[in-house]
Amino acid sequence: MISFEFPIVERVRILLRLEELFRRLTHFSDADGADEHHVALQTLFDMAELGARGDLKSELIQDLERQRFALEALRDNPAIAEHALDEVLGEIESAMSRQLEYTGKFGHELRDNEWLMNIKQRMAIAGGACQFDLPSYYYWQNLPAEARRADLQRWAAPLLATRDAVAVLLKLLRDSGKSNTFTARQGAFQQMSGGKVVHLIRVSVDRKLGVAPEVSANKYAVNVRFIEPTTHSARSRASTDDIPFTLAFCKL
Fewest C-beta in 10 Å: which of 28, 43, 162, 188? Predict the structure, then answer.
């Protein structure tokens, strides 16, 4: 099975984008090559730019506080394992504490570094980070891998509190969804929402079927249409087969 996630609200879109950027940062930072570390640095710049929109820190703290309050209300529920509840609440408390300890706007340490911002500006130009454009950056790229990695880790360190908060919230969001199995007749499916609040829709389908879902949703209905992706054209053909799939509605 391959699962596709479709955020319905903007704050979940940002969480998913940050999760992907943190994953990419870890992957390329752990490598040894200068090219991989170049991508890691580009990823840091993308994270700083994404996180600078709005008040990310306040939004994360509010979401964590809301989840803590909702989970505390389950304390006396006999159907809830108390040790599991305590573990989740501990993760929330830890993430909140780290967010409160972080001062300034997300990524401000990167924006305050003139050397890094000069590199970021050059990277915005196609091929603009060549050795003749940025000789000091080329020198950095020729340092031992351990030295470059130490710099990347130092630049990323202030952002790790946000990584933990994002991980906790997305885990709670995904765990909130209950999967149900449906069939998209001739590749199309619709379900009435009944005014239900949804923050994330997850569609899972057998990868052997060679299809991918497209989802549109509002407070009245959820529509799923399966297409047959192709790399030869920007326009994919709509599937006309009956497609079995699972659908989960997730809410923070």
Answer: 188
